[in-house]
Amino acid sequence: MCIVGMNRCKGPGQGAEEQQEEEEVTGMVCQEVDLRDGQMKEVTVGDQKVLLVRTRGQYSAVGSQCSHYNAPLVKGVLVGDRVRCPFHGACFNVRTGDIEEYPGLDCLPSYKVKVEDGKVYVSIHKNVSDGHFVISGPASLVCAETLRQNCYQGRIVIVTKDTLPPFDKPKLSKALDLDSSSILLRPSDFYQQHGVEVWTRKEVSVVSVDPAEKSVKLSDGSLQRYDQLLISTGCRSASAARPLDCPGWDLHGVKLLQTHEDANEIHHSALGQKAVVIGASFIGMEVASYLSNTAASVAVVGPSRYPYERSLGPQIGRMIMQMLEEKNVKFYMTDFVDEIKGENGKVDLEIKHKDLFLGVIPNSDFLTGSQLEVDSRKAVIVDKFMRTNIPDIFSAGDVTSFPLTIRGDQRVNVGHWQMSQAQGRVAALNMLKKPTKCESVPFFWTVLLGKSIRYTGYGEGYTEILFKGKVEERKFLAFYIKDEVVVAAASLMFDPAVARVAELMATGQVISKAQAQ
């Protein structure tokens, strides 16, 4: 959650033209005729790699690696003045270095380019230093940073029930033993440097939306007033709110993965032991993948025939299942846990067929009685400006139900990291009375046994899947079709195809079934 107190500068994440610069180095990197419009090339100046781009007859140069996980942008997709990362979909302006789509937080450094006598020169600098209230999550951090970048000088407070300031939560299920310092989105001194207060280990119990009050009550009983409020509390496992519907769910050996501490505890308790993962979701499968290298054995219990069957389809689900079976992971599908038994820290499961779908639910219980509008799943309803039905209260991230542009403004709830960050930025700009709509295209990835599946779009309700390549060879591009058009795409070992589809969708282009065939 982010609380904003009003008062009114580029700051964190700014472009290279604002950064501290030192010794300049210039190098001739190519001939003017070497690149055509719409082409890019990775070049080296001094000992630094640079992405050189030609668009509309002009050259520009920016940092060569995505600011998210350092992916090589030269392998991405260039459309107009924007390059999209092939791995996780972050986008950057190739003229300014500005970040235009998430994930990632920082802009790219931009460099001076000169064309002289048919030769292209790039100059770099050897040492380039790269009273709102926000409640939790990646959206809150991006919101706070965007406010500071746009010269907001008032108080900003981020409140989270976690023990850590905003951190890279998608990493938890991919590597359970990570040190907390390695997953922080920003180091602790960053918040002090930019005047952002971070209150950890605090939960919000009640939100007052009385225009005269404008207050937030925390779980410790304290009352905090706000001028503008961002609710970005995310979702949680349904089993965290409604514990596993079976006896024994509260035994010592049963763990839920929600926090960094949970991840570390699961890692240590599973070392050399028999592990069972309940749920064949993206998170469950990533945990099973990780434990296949550390536990004595791993079993997965899931309600569908195959993992991801509902979202990615049976062909991909079957392939993923085979990949993990090769690592001796056992699957008990179309099943669920009927009872958990145990003593002395050890548990046994009784598995029976049982129709039950856990999934996730929005963290919005604290809004009960606040008159804030929520949908049937208790997701906070917002418009394209991330505004709720109550003036000066905004919401962003997994907790929201919002109109999705690429589906004709169909109201959806999308639990993607990238979308949360994009919505945090949009909320901040609208807090500052800079009208901005959320037009982002969902982009998602999952990592299993070192292989990454990428996904873009919104495939709910698809009726057909078209494949390029072969799923059984674990190299493919899948198009999800609904009403004769592509509504989503997924790939494995087919980069940068999904990034290209995302860019087409972002520019409003419709990909027909005929074009996908």
From TrEMBL:
A Pfam match: Reductase_C
- InterPro entries reported for this sequence: FAD-oxidoreductase/Apoptosis (IPR050446), FAD/NAD-bd_sf (IPR036188), FAD/NAD-binding_dom (IPR023753), FAD/NAD-linked_Rdtase_dimer_sf (IPR016156), Reductase_C (IPR028202), Rieske_2Fe-2S (IPR017941), Rieske_2Fe-2S_sf (IPR036922)
List cellular component terms (GO).
Answer: cytoplasm
Residues annotated as domain Rieske:
27-122
The UniProt keyword set, sorted, is: 2Fe-2S, FAD, Flavoprotein, Iron, Iron-sulfur, Metal-binding, Oxidoreductase
Q: Which domain of life is it from?
A: Eukaryota
Provide the GO MF annotations for this entry.
2 iron, 2 sulfur cluster binding; metal ion binding; oxidoreductase activity, acting on NAD(P)H
Annotated family: Belongs to the FAD-dependent oxidoreductase family.
Protein name (database record): Apoptosis inducing factor mitochondria associated 4
Q: Which organism is it from?
A: Gasterosteus aculeatus aculeatus
